[in-house]
Design brief:
The protein contains 13 helices and twelve strands. By secondary structure, the protein is α/β, with parallel strands linked by helices. It has two domains: 150 residues, Rossmann fold; 175 residues, Glycogen Phosphorylase B (Rossmann fold), CATH 3.40.50.
């Protein structure tokens, strides 16, 4: 398959493995972006490219829909989750309703609406009113060579470097710091887990977002709450590998990649059933609770902390095997090829 990558945001790499050409449409203004996107679409048409696969990009989606009468390309749009839902007690405004209507109109103009995992297909179909024959299933993938368990000596050295004592039970949270990700549950969660365990507990929070200041205020002068802020992706595998447990208390999700990262690293995880999370970990996973059920999150974390070494190793090996088989890049590439 011959592939061109169009990059709309950030600093694009000069080249990507398996990609013939990387085209940047990043610009200092909307006018510049518009010109670059139109130029890229025209170049792709002349070079014989007729299929576009987009992840979320509304600007490029609008441009592709508007230029379809001229170039007759196919458009496949990936979306998963309901991140446009309101947080907490906020109410929907006229602007939100108009954006919903606009998003629905755009979704119905694509040739294929792509989402995953399985439980998100009917949710996304109903949310965006997409005809059933246009729905497609596609997984996220995980590089299990990068996200892999650390050898014991490396794990011990990593914890020492991070300032995590070997006697501590370290719980890791990696996600956007927002209401919908359950970040406001983290401090009461930590306090309850600490009260139940007979060993020191540390909660390590990685990420950025609107709730960061909220957590910083509550975590001031607390040695058991380690707020690391945003961390480059290349450094994440060692954090997963050094942790004892991963927690995801989300109210809303789609296809959470952080679960795949924890699974691939063989770290036991505790998560809610938000979005497609149950599909990711498997329906038989023992540490899966209802959305918003803080007592269950606490109880399951304590159960993880009390696992024997052999029980922990067996659970981690099982989850890593699931990640390697079901969500490997090779398997997901095959799914995408079938779609395209």
């Amino acid at each position: 398959m011959d592939v061109i990558a169009l990059v709309e945001r950030g600093t694009p790499p000069a080249q990507l493995p398996g990609v013939r050409k990387v085209i940047s449409t990043v610009g200092p203004s909307r006018v510049t972006r518009l010109v670059r996107v139109l130029s890229a679409i025209r170049w792709c048409a002349r070079a014989g490219y007729r299929t576009y696969f987009l992840r979320y990009s509304r600007f490029l989606l609008v441009m592709l829909i508007l230029t379809y009468p001229f170039f007759r390309h196919r458009i496949f749009l990936w979306r998963s989750g309901t991140a446009d839902l309101m947080d907490g007690d906020r109410r929907r405004t006229v602007r939100h309703r108009l954006e919903d209507l606009f998003g629905t109109l755009l979704a119905r103009c694509v040739h294929g609406f792509v989402t995953g995992p399985e439980s998100m297909v009917p949710i996304m179909r109903a949310r965006w009113q997409v005809p059933a024959h246009r729905m497609r299933l596609l997984y996220n993938d995980i590089d299990s060579d990068r996200f892999a368990p650390l050898p014991p000596a490396v794990r011990q050295e990593t914890r020492r470097r991070l300032g995590w004592d070997e006697t501590e039970f370290v719980v890791l949270f990696v996600h956007r710091l927002s209401f919908r990700r359950g970040t406001r549950l983290l401090v009461p969660y930590l306090d309850a887990v600490r009260a139940e365990l007979d060993r020191p507990v540390r909660l390590v929070v990685v990420g950025d977002g609107p709730d960061r200041s909220y957590l910083e205020r509550l975590g001031r002068d607390r040695a058991d709450l380690h707020l690391m802020g945003p961390v480059p992706n290349r450094k994440l595998p060692s954090l997963y590998g050094a942790a004892d447990c991963f927690v995801m208390p989300s109210y809303e999700e789609g296809f959470p990649r952080v679960l795949l990262e924890a699974m691939s690293t063989a770290v036991p995880l505790v998560t809610t059933r938000a979005g497609g999370s149950a599909d990711v970990v498997g329906s038989g996973y023992p540490f899966l609770c209802d959305v918003g059920d803080l007592p269950a999150l606490i109880r399951m974390t304590i159960e993880v902390a009390r696992l024997t070494d052999s029980e922990r190793d067996a659970l981690g090996a099982r989850m890593r095997e699931r990640a390697q088989q079901r969500f490997s890049p090779q398997h997901v590439a095959g799914m995408l090829e079938d779609i395209l």
